[in-house]
Amino acid sequence: MSEPNTYPATSMLIAPGSAGIVEPKKAHFGQPFTVSCGRILPSIDIVYETYGQLNADKSNAVLICHALSGDHHAAGLHSADDKKPGWWDNYIGPGKAIDTNHFYVVSLNNLGGCAGSTGPSSINPETGKQWGPDFPTLRVRDWVESQRMLADKLQIAQWAAVIGGSLGGMQAMRWALEYPDRLRHCVVIASAMKLSAQNIAFNKTSRTAISSDPDFHGGRYHEHNTLPKRGLAIARMIGHITYLSDNVMGEKFGRDLRSGSFERGIESELEFQVESYLRHQGDVFSESFDANTYMLMTRALDFFDLAREYGDDPVKAFAAAKCRFLVVSFTSDWRFAPERSRELVQALIGAEKSVSYAEIDAPQGHDSFLLPVERYNQVFSAYMQYAAKECVSQPDDQHQPQANTEVHHA
Amino acid sequence: MSEPNTYPATSMLIAPGSAGIVEPKKAHFGQPFTVSCGRILPSIDIVYETYGQLNADKSNAVLICHALSGDHHAAGLHSADDKKPGWWDNYIGPGKAIDTNHFYVVSLNNLGGCAGSTGPSSINPETGKQWGPDFPTLRVRDWVESQRMLADKLQIAQWAAVIGGSLGGMQAMRWALEYPDRLRHCVVIASAMKLSAQNIAFNKTSRTAISSDPDFHGGRYHEHNTLPKRGLAIARMIGHITYLSDNVMGEKFGRDLRSGSFERGIESELEFQVESYLRHQGDVFSESFDANTYMLMTRALDFFDLAREYGDDPVKAFAAAKCRFLVVSFTSDWRFAPERSRELVQALIGAEKSVSYAEIDAPQGHDSFLLPVERYNQVFSAYMQYAAKECVSQPDDQHQPQANTEVHHA
After folding, report:
1. Which of residues 223-242 of A touch B (CB under 8 A)?
2. Which residue range forms the structural domain that includes residue B111?
3. What pLDDT band is residue A406 in, cutting at 50, 70 and 90?
4. How far, CA to CA in Å, does B342 sit from each of A254, A298, B357, B370, B383?
5. Which of A148, B4, B74, B354 is the most interior residue, by most CB within 10 Å?
6. Residues A333 and A265 in one domain
7. Longest C-alpha distance within chain A, in Å?
8. Among B279, B303, B327, where does a domain finish?
């Protein structure tokens, strides 16, 4: 929203604490981008959003790294009648944990994504056709590299913090290793230094569901004017089950029926609430998410192994890190269990880094990192307030091209 | 093996403790079988095996109820060069927990199955075609009813014990409610009085994988000369992950690669051991198991709710039961967690029934009930020895048509 005065009525509709109406921007990088696998992308685009204002010495910028199916739209609304705010709106906004009154928040769609940044759905300039399955394999380090280029473009020499949950936490950790001078804080939420065999197994099953969908065509579904919706829906169903805890699914759905009754006993009519919910989630996702991006993201997740190049010793891996760390896990998260976060904390202690760790008692499983959880919010907010105090100058309108926050949250 | 002397050399190959070479039998029931949904099967066949010898007063018969993908072949071998023994060979045989020196063990393929008993792959005598998706919906009570008919045919008025793990445990519980005079012991292992929302969600995802496979054709794949192998493979992959614990998968596979290397980094070559394992398990299953049976079995599992007709009060449900109970759970079983068994034990205590409960510390997840676990074996053996002492007469060759156990285990 570059002209706030054209929306006089909408400010009434926007909840206090919202980052307001935000508009995605696109950064174009014309130079070739060499991917870690050795292949080259002739140029790349990165779509991103910003919330809050960059201060005079550019010391208050925070980078948000998204997870598997996330994108750049982390907070605020795209229009006044937008029904859903960004995916981390619970934690980004004025007065929230990542307080846009103090921080200039940058949130991007990862390279390889399907929300506007260069990815499998983009046109390969050399062929004039969509990349599809020929898009290069990416690793977490490639995301960090493209995020570093975005930081350079935005003239951010050092992030106040790099923050991510799940796969996003892996990016934050990789930042601490690759560019130790370029972040002061690393916030790693519901993540792990590497996936477990069970995690890989679930991802493999999801990918198999997609690749064995006859509409997948080896990833060339666009050429066949199809979409592997059935496979994507199944992948999403598996994801949803594993993002929630058994208990929270029980509380949310129990064994309630959506249709039919046991007394009538007509098989075709009987459907549990939880079945209906999953079916719906699968269908929605299969219409909106790109299958090749899903394959690429889950592969990057599987292959991430923080300490692999450090003799499998995470203490060695973190040796060069200079930032401080906040690590958060959730008791009911069985996809990225607290044990994985404790291993990370042990490694950081072994490497003599400053680390705060909170194991939050929350019933919502892995999804807790996205949801409003009081104790989590308290810990996260307190840590970020501490990080904000280090930012020398105060936010300054002159450095913020979109001065919309003043209008909506004053 | 009805003529043991024709296999003189093979007895050397059969391990001590094996039930020996066994042969499936088929029981035909010519009268119409009315299913709980009201539909009628004109006749049914039940395939079963027996191990050990029925004693003179027929008081030593034990019924084994199988789980989702099990069948009648619970112990022993089908031939001397059979590579795999029956699915519960760890616990059935001479000197084993279910000791065939004391018990006459009956193990059947459930109605609706795909290993020989009447099921969706059978010919509907009224149409001359396979039943396919038109096979009636079954509930756990239908299995109990067909098992009761088999008991009548074998002249077993009362089982020494009805025993089952997982879905098999549900059948054992239902026996205690439906035919309280016809069993002395009910052994319920790694089971639950009803599935949780998460359990249903996994089953739903598996069924969706099958039903959305274009080769499924609404269950009429035989008419199209196809098999929904892709869907079944995915269903099996999901099953396998949930039958094992995160820890045991980690120990078994870790992050070891099956092919390729991270240094070479050629994406198409890279495969984790756990991926290869799952792919293989899925492929094997998809060649051997019937998709309609899978749908039917998982629906019966989802809909089982022991106390539904008793005002959702399991104490009331068990009021009429007369047998004693052994309940066993495994600490790492997250599909049928110990909490579910504890609920069952509480209900049994509330109903003033005799119940022994063992929560076994085992790392193998739900699959523990099939695997050799020392403490589980001790508890199970001790309980069954106690049950064996109640059998008045000793096993008697005259009542056992297959006297093969003497030959191989003397």
Report:
1. 230, 233-234, 237-238, 240-241
2. 4-196+305-409
3. very low
4. 18, 37, 8, 20, 18
5. B74
6. no
7. 70
8. B303
Q: Look at residue A2 and tell me whether its pLDDT is greater than 50.
A: no
**What are the tokens at A405?**
């926050």
Q: Indicate whether this complex's ipTM tops 0.95.
A: no
Selected for mutation to probe chain B from A195, A198, A252 (highest B CB count within 10 Å) is: A198
What tokens appear for A51 in the block? 């919330």
Q: Which residues contact A165 (CB under 8 A, 6 or more apart)?
A: A67, A189, A190, A191, A369, A370
Provide, as residue numbers in chain A, all residues whose Cβ is less than 8 Å from the Cβ of B267. 37, 137, 299
Integer angstrom CA distances of residue A302 from A119, A347, B271: 19, 20, 10
Least confident piece of the model among A16-20, B171-175, B232-236:
A16-20
Query: What CATH number is associated with residue A119?
Result: 3.40.50.1820
Catalytic entry in A72, A222, A366, A408: A366
Interior/surface letters A256-279, b for 16+ CB within 10 angstroms, e for the rest: eeeeeeeeeeeeeebebbbbbbbb
Render pLDDT for B286-321 as a digit per residue (tens, 0 to 9): 999 999 999 999 999 999 999 999 999 999 999 999
Residues 298-317 of B with CB under 8 A from A: 299, 302-303, 305, 308
pTM for this one?
A: 0.91
Identify the three-state secondary structure at position A161. Answer: strand
What's the pLDDT score for residue A15?
Answer: 81
Q: Are residues A35 and A137 in the same domain?
A: yes
Q: Which residue has the tokens 């120990």?
A: B251
> Checking DSSP bridges between strand A61-65 and strand A161-165, what pairing results, if any?
parallel
Coil vs helix vs strand at A307? coil
Contacts of B230 in chain A (CB under 8 A): 212
Stretch A175-203: mean pLDDT: 97
